[in-house]
Amino acid sequence: MKNVSSQKKLIRITTIPMALHVLLTGQMKFMSENGFEVIMISADGENLDKVMQNEKCRHIIVPMTRQITPLQDLKCLVKLIMIFRKEKPDIVHSHTPKAGLLAMIAAKLTGVKIRIHTVAGLPMVVEKGLKKLLLKNIEKMTFTFANHVWPNSNSLLQFIKENKLTSVNKLKVIAKGSSNGIDLNKFDVTTLNPTLLEEIKSSINYSVENTYLLCMGRLVKDKGLDELVNVFISLQEQFPFLRLMLIGNFEESLDPLPKIILEEINNNPSIIHVKWTDKVEYYLSLSNIFVFPSHREGFPNVLLQAGAMSLPIICSDIMGNIDIVSDNETGLIFECKNEIELKSKIILALSEPKHTEKMANNLHQIITTSYIREMFWQTMLLEYLKLLKQINQKQE
Fold first, then answer.
1. What is the CATH number of the domain that holds 54?
2. Which residue of 39, 227, 297, 396 is surrounded by the most CB atoms within 10 Å?
3. Residues 51 and 17: beta-carbon distance below 8 Å
4. 254 — phi, psi (to 5°)?
5. Which domain holds residue 274?
6. Do 224 and 122 share a structural domain?
7. What's the total number of domains in the chain?
8. What's the whole-model pTM score?
9. Alpha-carbon span 20 to 113, nearest angstrom
10. Can you tell me the distance from the alpha carbon of 86 to that of 154, in angstroms, rounded to the nearest whole number?
């Protein structure tokens, strides 16, 4: 295997280092250990030191932004062209929208033969009017310059097909889906540190008398936080023992929460906010139900994580979620943005704990056999090698 990939150079690029650290953890190190020279590219920012420490691969800073910033984007495109000309990568593989657009254009212009973009969600899905059209055209442009487009779920692949965003022969889902599989050593209740668990219990004033609903990720409107907070408020009188735990960071520049929701989160004593942490498995272990009302996803890692920890799941009926959870079999699904249905599903889960536990056990079995991280890496490695072999055969 290594004799095919030796001396081959792989560039993995995301807009910000958080994506390398959270979404692709360990993937670059694995590829490096299996014959590739791996170069990571992202903007500077939080978690870059951790990325460098964990992946042990070279990193180049390109100051990309997640917003629409034409002048800055053009500067970054020029910088990427210069980097690709110097490095001469065999594969450029992008992840996240802005990095995908700029990397695929630069890779095409510099003659990179294998240009892969992973689609982990489409921002256009939740937009309307001119902004939706703009985002749709940006995605189509990214897919045009890529010669391999990898949606990270089958439902996302189907959406791309139905909306004719790119040619079908470019599309492929790696393994069973996801961007990186699930680390079953980390997300396992038997491996938790008892001392740290007690510290976290203390930090959130944990009580066995309470029932904890957990939601984690970016704390923005697209994640359905408005609906979740509204529903929680409406449930408090009926279920005074209920607590809502939110793990993640607020965002002011992209899709911020309304002021009234922010005030409720900050002032309601039954809502617990924890800033994003690498120790989410501990909070999962302390929770009773995972609620995920997101409006758009590709293939949400948090559902894999909750499922691996045998935590019952209630989620919206969107792309990505429905690839993981089957309604009333491995979890409960409600219509996206429907507060009445979300409330009824939470009440159902609270009133039928044995059925809820059975569904969680069903999902745990699926996740621990079908989404193992090392299996995902091996599948992606084989796909890289297959593409390289095809290029070699064409050149002979």
1. 3.40.50.2000
2. 297
3. yes
4. -120, 115
5. 189-370
6. no
7. 2
8. 0.91
9. 23
10. 36
